[in-house]
Amino acid sequence: MTTLSQVPVRGGALTVARWGEPADGPPVLAIHGITANHLAWGLVAPLVTGPVVAPDLRGRGGSGSLPGPYGMAAHAADCVAVLDAAGIDRAVVVGHSMGGFVASVLAHRYPSRVARLVLVDGGTPLALPDGVGLEAALGPAVARLSMTFASAADYHDFWRRHPSFAVWNPAIESYVDYDLTGAAPRLRSGVNGDAVRADFVDLHEGAEPLAAYTALPPDTVFLRAERGMFDQPEGLYPDPAAIGLAVRTVPGTNHYTILLGEPGARAVADALA
């Protein structure tokens, strides 16, 4: 069962989901990607033995109206507020995609709050070809931010056309439905485009994420999706050796289904155990 709460942070309140109460295992803080929300963890969380807390990061989901400044350090500070509100001294911290960069900065800035770190297809330096910006890098995930949709069904159709969501399931549907705001026939994503743009620059060019990566212990677990952002055969991280951590490639997954597909979710839950 999932419960939602509001956690006071700079500029307002952060929406936070919690699964697994009561629970036997260590607490987990789960941090989603650049245009995602807490339901990115909808398949993983029920497989974890301990309680899982997952915020909607500043500018996304139920936290969409929170103001900037954004960036990895700002998100890390928000995550500390989440741990404080949940009464969690130390957590296993897992981050997917941009969430991996937030998780690394959290571990670097607040080491006493992190029992162990798991990075999921994100958190280590990403090389972009010259001239490739936000729109080209993220494709439909960013294109939708300037679009409106007549109905939830239309939004489902939009996402079903994404190569990485060819295998649709209830977890994906819940994840995309939660993203919608407004009223038909002008539904739209609740993600703040300014937050996405600021965070994209920070994770690629910011000093904080690079310093955090440099400080990572070499035995930090990095779960690598076999396939890419658009389900292409080459993964987002094409060379596992270049990552420099304890890399485990998860077969048959792409950048999204490593969380939102059953095999990927089980691999992530196993790494958190």
Automatic annotation (TrEMBL):
GO MF entry, a single one: catalytic activity
SUPFAM superfamilies per record: alpha/beta-Hydrolases
GO cellular component: membrane
InterPro entries: AB_hydrolase_1 (IPR000073), AB_hydrolase_fold (IPR029058), AB_hydrolase_sf (IPR050266)
Every AB hydrolase-1 domain range: 26-166
Tree of life domain: Bacteria
Name of the protein in question: AB hydrolase-1 domain-containing protein
